[in-house]
Amino acid sequence: MAIVITDECINCAACEPECPNTAIYEGGVEWTWGGGTKLTEVELGDGSIIGGKDPMSPISDEFYYIVTDKCTECHGFHEEPQCAAVCPVDCCVPDPDNIEDDDILAAKKSWLHAEV
User: Between 3.30.10.20, 3.40.50.1860, 3.30.70.20, 3.30.70.260, what CATH number should domain 1-116 receive?
Assistant: First the structure.
């Protein structure tokens, strides 16, 4: 499953540089699919295609947040999610709404980094 940052976040920014997929962003900051990945364009669920550098709306305005579709729980990079390992208040936790097994996480990593 992807990792989520809870509202217990103290906005210390310890997690952000640790993410190998650049899936973590400061609250209120726009994000991109291409940041930290090799994606140049992405087909959205509605069939529209956006550029990898096109800005996306922030998921949270108050706290750091993780873009679920970019989170691989550090699969293929580290033994454990690095955001959770460095968080001083333990607010980077598994997201029960986004359960993913190792095969799904590996496929996501391959897609994000053009390894397919």
Answer: 3.30.70.20
